[in-house]
């Protein structure tokens, strides 16, 4: 039965030839019947109308089997069979019996049955329509035909099943409601076989059919015109056309489904982002309202905020990806999806931008708080440094160091003023930002939290203002004290300078004020100059005394002991006493010199004829006494109260002055002698 087939040959009526080869083995009539049904189902109705010629090859079988097969044809295909040719073996059965049986059954069978040997089969069928088994020239490879037929049957079965599945899927996608459509697609979305594979199989089968090479022979023998009907080339083409149509629809359904799935996934991800940002993300921001009360606290809050930002960054990355996907769908999407996509994109953007703005606002607020606390800490350190400087007692060495300290104090106070101004600016900026915090509070009342922050900021600024005011008051006191100390040092310096000046005047008096004059007039001029010189010294002394009195007052005000008044005042008094003693000695010498020169000049200018001159001889004795006294003073040192001695000028200077006095005393003595000579000669005459 394996080789029971339609060879493609045709009888003289153009009917198909059906060959039934029988063998020695037991033949199953049921299988034969099924096979005949299958083979008879292959030709078209038009082909069947022309009838079949059946060749029963009984050369290797028994007559009873042949007879049974012939009778079975009556039951299976009585209308289609027009002629049955039973090929008898060389040693044939009883001719009488066989011929009689088929002849009697002709009317009942409905077709003619003839017994013929293989070499005489060409009487009924052309040799070109018979295979080599029956002496013909028709090329036929049953195994090749069977393999191709199996391919065809598989393709037909798979394509028919696939068409049903695709039709179910495609028709399900056309249902009215979205819910029904999605449910239908979900249940029948994947076909049982790959459409691409089935289409490829069909195209390969059709290609072979069109090339008429089912037999696979090397020579490419052409088939008879009936092979289109036998191999159902039109059926393959029809199936392929239907498959392409349904597959195209199926691809569109898949595309729509993929787009819908992608849209649903995007929508799901969008809602995940939105729900997290409006839920846990917003809750994280709502719980973070403080600004800290120090740099460390603000830095800790910043670190916490960075952790929150890190969590948000993951969702913002999802937002960027979703936004790109939505943008791609908008560029290639259908009109019906544009509104939904734009709505999703707008919702996602609004939430993300709002949350990003809140994060940025919080970051700016914490940064402003950190800057505020940093400025406050710097200002506090400046105030501490200024206060420490003010709390240390001032013990400068001189006025220059006091001026330097005062300059440093003023610079620190100026720096504090600048720091406080910067703190006010930072604080006001921070307060302005806090006042805007309610705009993103999601309805939460942040008045209490903001009040704590505002109170803290204002408290810090007020505390710094009070500390700065206290430091300013202390600076004012310190400034006054330091100015008094500067004045004290100035008075001490000026008093010391007065002592130096007075010492210089004393030195000048001793070394340069040594001349006694050549006559009375010159001596009087020197005496007048000396009095003026003494007035200058007196002014210097008084100036020094006033300065020293001022140092006493300043020391009492500063509650300190003057370091120089105990030294300068004794020096001033000592120098002044030395100057006074020296000045008095100088005055006494000049006055003595005036008296000496005046008397001497008077005697030397009187005429000898004047009688009164002889009555005043005692003047000569007086002038001699004055001259000797003056000469004696020139040789005597000045003795100061402390017992020290000092001479006017150098010994040569004193010798020169003494010599001038002696010369004038000689002149006076000579004059005295001249006056005495006339008196001696007068009695003799």
From TrEMBL:
Keyword Repeat: yes
Superkingdom to which the source organism belongs: Eukaryota
Segments forming domain CRAL-TRIO: 1-142
Keyword Repeat: yes
Coiled coil location: none
A molecular function GO annotation: phosphatidylinositol-3,4-bisphosphate binding
InterPro entries: CRAL-TRIO_dom, Spectrin_SESTD1
Keywords for the protein's UniProt record, in alphabetical order: Repeat
Family affiliation: Belongs to the SOLO family.
Name by which UniProt lists this protein: SESD1 protein
Originating organism: Malurus elegans (Red-winged fairywren)
Organism phylogeny: Eukaryota, Metazoa, Chordata, Craniata, Vertebrata
Gene: Sestd1
């Amino acid at each position: 039965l394996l080789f029971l087939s339609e060879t493609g040959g045709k009888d003289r009526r153009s009917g198909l030839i059906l060959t039934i080869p029988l063998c020695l083995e037991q033949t199953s009539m049921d299988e034969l019947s099924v096979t005949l049904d299958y083979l008879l189902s292959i030709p078209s109705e038009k082909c069947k109308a022309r009838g079949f010629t059946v060749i029963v090859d009984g050369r290797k079988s028994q007559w009873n089997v042949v007879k049974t097969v012939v009778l079975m044809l009556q039951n299976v295909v009585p209308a289609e069979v027009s002629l049955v040719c039973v090929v008898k073996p060389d040693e044939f059965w009883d001719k009488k019996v066989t011929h009689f049986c088929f002849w009697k059954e002709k009317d009942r069978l409905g077709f003619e049955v003839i017994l013929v040997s293989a070499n005489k089969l060409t009487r009924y069928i052309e040799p070109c329509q018979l295979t080599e088994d029956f002496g013909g020239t028709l090329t036929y490879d049953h195994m090749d035909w069977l393999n191709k037929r199996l391919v065809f049957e598989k393709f037909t079965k798979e394509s028919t099943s696939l068409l049903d599945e695709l039709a179910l899927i495609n028709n399900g996608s056309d249902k009215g409601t979205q819910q029904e459509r999605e449910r239908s697609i979900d249940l029948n979305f994947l076909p049982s076989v790959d459409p691409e594979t089935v289409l490829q199989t069909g195209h390969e089968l059709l290609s072979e059919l069109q090339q008429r090479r089912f037999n696979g022979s090397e020579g490419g023998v052409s088939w008879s015109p009936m092979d289109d009907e036998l191999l159902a080339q039109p059926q393959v083409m029809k199936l392929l056309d239907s498959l392409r149509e349904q597959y195209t629809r199926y691809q569109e359904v898949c595309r729509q489904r993929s787009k819908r799935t992608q849209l649903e996934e995007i929508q799901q991800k969008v809602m995940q982002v939105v729900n997290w940002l409006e839920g846990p993300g917003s809750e994280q921001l709502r719980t973070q309202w403080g600004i800290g009360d120090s740099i460390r606290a603000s830095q800790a809050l910043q670190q916490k905020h960075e952790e929150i930002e890190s969590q948000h960054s993951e969702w913002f990355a999802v937002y960027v990806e979703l936004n790109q996907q939505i943008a791609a769908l908008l560029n290639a999407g259908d009109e019906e999806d544009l509104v939904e996509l734009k709505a999703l994109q707008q919702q996602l953007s609004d939430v993300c931008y709002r949350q990003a703005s809140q994060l940025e606002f919080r970051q700016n607020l914490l940064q402003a708080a950190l800057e505020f606390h940093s400025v406050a800490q710097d200002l506090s350190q400046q105030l501490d440094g200024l206060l420490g400087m003010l709390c240390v007692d001032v013990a400068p060495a001189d006025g220059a160091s006091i001026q330097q300290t005062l300059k440093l104090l003023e610079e620190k106070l100026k720096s504090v003023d600048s720091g406080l101004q910067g703190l006010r600016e930072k604080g006001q900026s921070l307060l302005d930002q806090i006042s805007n915090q309610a705009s993103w509070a999601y309805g939460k009342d942040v008045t209490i939290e903001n009040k704590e922050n505002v109170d803290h900021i204002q408290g810090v600024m007020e505390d710094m203002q009070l500390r700065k005011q206290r430091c300013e008051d202390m600076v004012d006191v310190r400034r006054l004290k330091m100015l008094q100390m500067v004045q004290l040092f100035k008075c001490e310096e000026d008093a010391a300078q007065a002592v130096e000046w007075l010492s210089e005047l004393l030195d000048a008096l001793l070394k340069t004020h040594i001349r006694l004059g050549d006559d009375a007039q010159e001596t009087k001029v020197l005496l007048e100059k000396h009095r003026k010189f003494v007035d200058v010294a007196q002014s210097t002394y008084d100036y020094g005394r006033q300065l020293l009195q001022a140092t006493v007052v300043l020391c009492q005000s500063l509650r300190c002991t003057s370091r120089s008044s105990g030294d300068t005042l004794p020096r001033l008094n000592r120098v002044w006493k030395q100057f006074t003693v020296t000045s008095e000695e100088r005055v006494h010498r000049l006055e003595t010199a005036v008296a000496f020169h005046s008397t001497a000049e008077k005697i030397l200018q009187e005429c000898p004829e004047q009688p009164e001159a002889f009555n005043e001889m005692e003047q000569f004795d007086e002038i001699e006494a004055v001259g000797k006294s003056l000469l004696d003073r020139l040789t005597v040192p000045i003795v100061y109260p402390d017992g020290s001695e000092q001479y006017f000028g150098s010994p040569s200077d004193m010798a020169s002055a003494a010599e001038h006095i002696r010369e004038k005393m000689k002149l006076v003595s000579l004059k005295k002698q001249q006056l005495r000579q006339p008196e001696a000669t007068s009695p003799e005459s």
